[in-house]
Design brief:
single chain, about 800 residues, alpha+beta, Jelly Rolls, about 15% strand, elongated
Length: about 800
């Protein structure tokens, strides 16, 4: 039910609310704004109202209710004035774009979001959107409470723009479904609204049908599409507000030409005030980075109005500027105080010499030609190869040629309205690119990309006037190239693992009442979203109360470190430790006991005593245990004082198919930097004969991250399949299987590709491990018995401890 509500109700509510707010603007301005622009300008007003409402203290449902009441009033006004028309091409365009963007999610059969572990900015967007309704723009009371509150403090105090977050939060109040479920439908709705606005912009030039083609082509641009699939909500919202401002400015020019000169002054003032709404929304959404785009649209609009002699006199111009500035000041009042702060933050993040080469998540600086929208490879960060490279070049040449035709045709018609959108995105890209990092440059190229393919569609329409067949064929080639590129992105998309997300939500319900700070020992950036009611410390986050302290210091961003790789002092400062379930993870130190377990996670809580004085870690790559050096064991025992004992964590009983050492298909090559991992470039399999020493029930585990199901077999019997994007160093659980002692054959198999979203994500594949299901208890060893009992065996770890009181199990065994 939540899935249907997210996919259907969210876009329906957004369109209805936006239409109603647009109708209010049409009524207040007394301008005959076309119906096709009501949803875009209403969405822009929704951004302004949502951010303003939360900023002035309209908490909880007050802001959503205010927006809904205004929207309802607008709809009632439109009905009474008989201004609601039957849905036409604009509605079909909106639905087509929404379907294109929702395809990777809908075709999974359930809610999720794309871009997981690609660019996890989505986590920050969700945290901020969740914070606004209850707290507005107030900062958390103090640092160190949890990773979630520390992230909020850092972003909010830095002037982080929140316009799109506020609109999402307000819609969440009207559609009571989880924010994560609503996130991608919201992004898809923004893209559809952007396409609608751009179609209105070019309709007077190319006609309504070609305008629909142009609007679709603009947002089907592969670079723009892929940024949406990685969760860039702010940037998609920025494009939508800029497209709305450009389309409204273009319509205003036409309206002023039709308005008698005697009434043109009033129309100009009303138009300036109305145009300030989407301009303000662009600033609210992207802060200081959105201002240059919006300002250029306004400057171009004024320049065109002056060139066409649509400004009746200086007094009218002055009043228009005053009206526009007044609306802008009111609509951005919640953002203006933070513009300087965010400008300073972004200048030190993206424009300093130290950051000049920062790639962020990119593998290389993006190429200018990628803005043509044809890029025949699933991951836009890499160049196409082979035949795909040749076809990409042909596609880029086609788009470039169509853009040239469009420029010549528009110059001949002396119609510059398309420039209202195209020129600002190109100018900002040209001016900004040399001054910022490749990561920031990628975003300027992404915002420019829809303008390129929009212009290409205008060129195809111009050719169709001359030779209809030629124009239609070239338009089909343009759209076909865009859709083929998008299909490749769909095939390679990385989708969020919803089953594990639900386990995080379950953890939050279980841990929410704990007072102490819990160590969350997994590089999971969405922990700060789904553990928001839990005092947790995501140890490898850049912003967190206590960053991981390693025995061997090294960089830790987005990496996994077993507890044995962390210092004892660091681990034991936390009363609770949360571990991802795994056959290779070390047990927490002796004072901790397992208190809760769900499908993916374990919760360990510290009891009173014993006191760990020294910890000998015994950890290998994908191995929870190793045989210790007897010399180290004896030395540890000699350091024990009276009353102290040694405690050892037994090694789990494991049977492993090592993917590197096994017989494997030719297309499965060793990972360049992840040990015991292979890259599965082709379908295939790996097999190995193994010896089972202890009979019993074993659970299967597969390490890695992959978009296609990997099936495991024991003696040709399937024991389950695993599929999904995973975090570094983590495992997928399979079913259990009874095993007898003796020789067995293990096999893992990757099938041929299919049409499912994400099926082309090859990822990385690690070992198959069978773990015997047994309840292993800590072993207490007297120092004098250390050599005989601890040497020559594998252990998870060995500790020197001082037992606690009589309630401590170790104390009772020592008595």
């Amino acid at each position: 039910m939540d899935t249907v509500a997210a996919w259907v109700l969210l876009p329906a509510v957004l369109v209805a609310v936006s239409f109603g707010l647009g109708a209010v603007l049409r009524r207040v301005s007394r301008l005959p704004v076309p119906s096709g622009l009501l949803v875009p300008i209403g969405m822009a007003l929704g951004v302004v109202l949502a951010l303003s409402g939360y900023s002035i203290g309209l908490r909880g449902l007050l802001t959503p209710v205010l927006i809904a009441v205004l929207a309802l009033a607008g709809i009632v006004l439109a009905v009474r004035r008989d201004e609601i028309k039957r849905p036409g091409l604009g509605a079909l365009l909106w639905l087509a774009v929404y379907g294109l963007y929702m395809g990777p999610v809908v075709l999974t059969g359930g809610w999720t979001w794309p871009g997981y572990n690609f660019v996890n900015d989505t986590a920050v967007q969700l945290v901020v959107a969740d914070w606004l309704p209850s707290n507005g723009r107030a900062l958390p009371s103090e640092r160190g409470i949890s990773t979630t509150t520390d992230v909020l403090t850092t972003y909010l105090s830095g002037g982080y723009p929140q316009g799109s977050h506020a609109l999402l939060a307000a819609l969440h109040g009207l559609v009571p479904v989880g924010l994560a479920e609503l996130y991608h439908p919201f992004v898809a709705s923004l893209a559809a609204t952007c396409a609608l606005a751009l179609s209105v912009l070019i309709a007077p030039v190319v006609g309504r049908r070609w305008a629909a083609v142009g609007g679709f082509a603009a947002v089907a641009n592969n670079l723009f599409y892929q940024y949406a699939l990685q969760g860039n909500m702010k940037e998609i919202a920025t494009a939508a507000t800029l497209a709305t401002a450009a389309a409204l400015a273009g319509w205003i020019l036409s309206h002023l030409r039709r308005t008698p000169r005697a009434r043109r002054g009033r129309a100009l003032v009303a138009s300036a005030a109305l145009l300030a709404v989407p301009v303000s929304a662009a600033v609210d959404v992207l802060s200081v980075a959105g201002a240059p785009y919006a300002a250029l649209i306004v400057v171009l609009w004024l320049g065109m109005a002056a060139a066409q002699r649509l400004i009746p006199d200086l007094r009218s111009l002055g009043l228009a500027l005053a009206a526009g500035i007044a609306v802008l000041a009111v609509a951005t009042a919640a953002t203006l105080p933070r513009l300087i702060t965010w400008g300073q933050t972004t200048s030190t993040t993206f424009a300093t010499p130290q950051m000049a080469e920062d790639l962020g998540h990119l593998a290389r600086p993006l190429e200018l030609r990628q803005t043509a929208g044809v890029w025949l490879i699933g991951d836009y960060r890499f160049p196409p190869v082979g035949t795909s490279a040749l076809l990409t070049t042909l596609g880029v040449v086609l788009v470039g040629g169509l853009c040239l035709v469009a420029v010549l045709a528009l110059a001949r018609r002396r119609d510059a309205r398309v420039a209202l959108f195209v020129v600002p995105v190109v100018v900002v890209m040209v001016l900004v690119t040399p001054r910022v990092s490749p990561y920031a440059d990628g975003k300027t190229l992404m915002l420019m990309a829809p303008g390129v393919t929009l212009l290409g569609a205008v060129g195809a329409a111009a050719l169709a006037r001359w030779r209809p067949g030629v124009g239609i064929v070239l338009a089909a080639a343009l759209v076909g190239g865009l859709l083929l590129s998008d299909a490749m992105a769909y095939h390679a998309v990385k989708l969020a693992p919803v089953d594990r997300i639900e386990s995080l939500r379950d953890l939050d319900r279980h841990l929410g009442e704990d007072r102490g700070l819990a160590l969350f020992n997994e590089p999971e950036e969405f922990a700060k979203v789904f553990l928001d009611d839990t005092r947790h410390n995501a140890s490898t986050e850049a912003i967190t109360p206590s960053q991981v302290q390693l025995r061997i210091p090294q960089g830790f961003g987005n990496l996994y470190f077993d507890l044995d790789e962390q210092t004892l002092e660091y681990v034991t400062q936390f009363p609770t430790v949360v571990l991802r379930r795994s056959p290779a993870a070390s047990r927490p130190p002796a004072p901790y006991e397992l208190s809760y377990r769900n499908r993916h996670y374990e919760v360990w809580r510290r009891r009173s005593g014993p006191e760990v004085l020294e910890h000998l870690p015994l950890q290998g790559i994908y191995q929870a245990a190793l045989e210790p050096s007897c010399q180290e064991v004896v030395a540890l025992a000699r350091r024990a004082r009276e009353g102290e004992v040694l405690v050892a964590a037994p090694a789990p009983t494991l049977v492993m198919l090592d993917t590197i050492a096994a017989r494997r298909s030719a297309g499965w090559n060793p990972h360049p930097y992840r040990p015991r991992m292979v890259l599965t470039a082709t379908p295939g399999e790996a097999t190995a004969r193994v010896s089972v020493r202890k009979p019993g029930v074993y659970r299967g585990w597969i390490a890695g991250s992959f978009g296609r199901p990997i099936t495991a077999y024991v003696d040709d019997r399937p024991i389950g399949s695993a599929r999904g994007v995973n975090n570094v160093g983590q495992w997928h659980a399979l079913e259990t299987v009874p095993l007898t002692a003796g020789r067995h054959e293990l096999r893992i198999k990757r099938p041929s590709g299919g049409l499912a979203p994400g099926d082309g994500y090859a990822g990385e594949l690690g070992p198959l491990v069978l773990e015997r299901q047994e309840d292993a208890q800590l072993e207490r060893v007297a120092p004098a018995q250390a050599r005989s009992r601890l040497c020559g065996r594998e252990w998870d770890w060995i500790e020197r401890v001082r037992p606690g009181d009589r309630r401590d199990p170790i104390s009772r065994r020592a008595a």
